Amino acid sequence: MFAIVDQISKSLRQLVKDPVFTAAAVVTLTLGIAANTSMFSVVYAVLLRPLPYKDASQVAVLWASVPEKGIPTDWTSFPTIQDWRNENKSFKDMATELRINSATLTGRDESEEIKVGRVSANLFPLLGVRPVLGRSYTSEEEARREPLVVISSSLWRSQFASSQSVIGQHLEVDHKQATIVGVMPPSFAYPSADTQLWLPLTFVPQWTAFLTARQSDGFRAIARLKPGVSLKEAQSEMDLIAQRLGGQYPNTDAGKGIAVVPLARQMIDPHVRTALWMLFGAVNLVLLIGCSNVASLMLARGTARQREFAIRAALGASRFKILRLLMGESLVLAAVSSVLGLGITIVFLRLLPRIVPTDLASVAHMTMSVPVLLFALALPVLTGILCGFFPAWKLSLGELHGALKGDSRTQAGQRSHSRMRSSLVVSEFALAVILLLGGGLFVRSLLLLQRENLGFTPANLLVATLTLPMDETAQARATKKSFEDVLEQVKALPGVADAAVTGSLFSDYTPNTQIVTEGAEYSSAKVQRVPSTLAIVSETFFRTMEISLLRGRSFSEYDSFGHPAVAVINKSMADQFWPRENPIGKRFRYGSPGAIDPEWLTVIGLAGDVNPNGPGSRPIATFYRAYRQAPWLTSMDIVVRCNSGNAGALGDGLRQSVRSVDHQIPRFEVQTVTAVLAEMSAPRRFETWLLGVFAGVALCLATVGIYSVMSYLVSKRTQEIGLRMAFGATEHDVLRLVVGFGIRLAGLGILLGLGVSFFAMRLIRHLLFGVSTSDPLTILLVSITLFVAALAASYFPARKAARLDPLASIRCE
Prior knowledge:
50% of the residues lie in helices and 16% in strands. It is of the alpha+beta class.
């Protein structure tokens, strides 16, 4: 123990003697360690932290899939899930979840829409989670359709002040009194982190119809594997079950598969998962560049200390002791940097929830956990080894006898040290190429996304989602034309140019809608190769959204109940079903598998494609129905086209107009469509911003690295440069000599980096939009940037060398 303390003390004294070197090394390593620890904290919180459920690795979410239409996960019917449950031998238990994930808290001054989980009673024991207060509802209570509810810990705090007497109290949900029977722990976040309460599956007016309707695709399953059964084995069995069901129920289940998705993968968006690993890899590259820089500095400092090492050797110090001395200094540098980096990480973790996108909700609950602390403790050891081992090993092998004479020209290993420093610079530039190229591709992708034609004009457009409580009176309320009345009130507001309603403006859900064209047999729907979707809109929708009408006409007030059923289709649907034909006047029917509506719709208009979920989404075959001819709905989006410049000021007026028509409509948010689109692209912007920061740090470190090499080169070749100038070399010749060497190192590093990037960039190609991983413009700009950085870093030492006095340079050795 005393020996370790003594070694640390010696290392600290040596580092204090050289404050410039120590400061440069500590700052470099601190940045790298802080970035790595912070990024690992995020990766652990979002991707690696075990889910708070019993044996979560044995739990999977089961979806239907439609491979022919490119739909990897789709909701299915309750009878289908019952078949899954009865026919499988892989799962110990299987719970059910309903897609309707919102409800309205009524019976108060202002109704409030909240996120809910409509789940079967066996979900809670399946996940191995018990309420912290009370109990969950039972399967028997669910079957009797008893109005019971389990609330979240956050709702318990906000609505009931964490009162222990909450059990037995009532909440009015969708105009129906429900009794609170339990409170879940704060860690329970299924199906999402913002779920406020859990209701029995039977707590919906349509439950009786759901029991037998195989065409009602609104359910998915959550299942626990039996001991000893793997996910692969379960997937193979479910594939066979899907084939059997497809033959048994050809109208509804033909062509469908079953996707078994591990719960951990289900909880995290695949894009987020890939992006986080990419960013973690990026900070690792930054740390490697920093370690290369510090190693280069240590090698230069060690070369200047060759005489000291020779004296130590003459007094009996072995090469091992010299190696230990140098490694001790490296580890002390890493330890000091780690302490500073850990402080930066703690501050970063407190700020991060305020700046990350909303889909990284796990970060909001991030703390300095044990795995993160262990990572923070292991990182300085690894960093110290990376920084110090090779320089220390190289220096300890030097010819100490020549160093003791003080003749630098005879110091063995001098050229070897220079080659090593040059190799470190080449590696720095290679790593910088990878980071800069990745950052450049992301920036290019983001710029292309922002310029993408969405098919409508988002500027000066407001959107608000209005939801009526889902109860038995919803249809009667809809007959009072609540939404039409709202629309009239909104149109009368000053500053409103136009307004419309639509079933859903932005959605990432694509229902498995089947289209049957006139003259085709019903079986032709089975060969439909693209997903199709329905949008219900008012007659002013296309005008308000400024969606181009390519042919025909839009809807009118005449297109209502009692008149011929009509539809407007988009270009993608026309290309799918009537390629190279005029679709106006064509007729089709639609429905879910096994339930094609007998009513024929006549195409009256052809609209341009719209990206349904913002920049980067792909248009899908879409048909629009007139709102006045559609079945009643309880949720609609109202879109408002404002006069230029006053979109943000209309929010309060819009809310007052809506509440004046129906005070039971829950409070809602009014947003500009531009803000909604910005929120959709926030994860991509965040990734681009972070990667850009890492790439900038890498560029700075690589520039500093080549500057230090050139400065060291000039200091060691002073006599040579003096001789060259004495024999007639000009300042230009000296500049060309030194700068040329720096450019050659950078060029080699760039070529090496581009070669590695050819393979590395393939890992992120699905995160890019509109740009390939071998984009020539990005490669050219990255190469030019690094060449300019190398030129600038080499120029200043070269200029210093070119201004040397030849006679003084010759005498200096």
